[in-house]
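User: Hey, my collaborator sent me this sequence without any context and asked if I could get a structure. I don't really work with proteins. Can you help?
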Amino acid sequence: MLNMKTSIIDTPLNGKTKPDLFDIKGYQDALVEFIKYAEAPLTIALQGEWGSGKTSLMNVLKT
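Assistant: No problem. I've predicted the 3D structure and written it out in structure-token form, which is a compact way to encode the shape of the chain:
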């Protein structure tokens, strides 16, 4: 098996230390507003390709 290096870094934001290269703040604000006014029960699914920012969004929502 080849050991290939890539320039793609898949390290999610943790909400504090890294710059928001995905511009997640807009999505974060919109999702928070949606959740505030939604009636329970509620299920939300985050779908996207590898490296698209799903975990980063979840991390900034926790903070």
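In plain terms: Residues 25-62 form one domain. You can pass these tokens on to your collaborator as they are.
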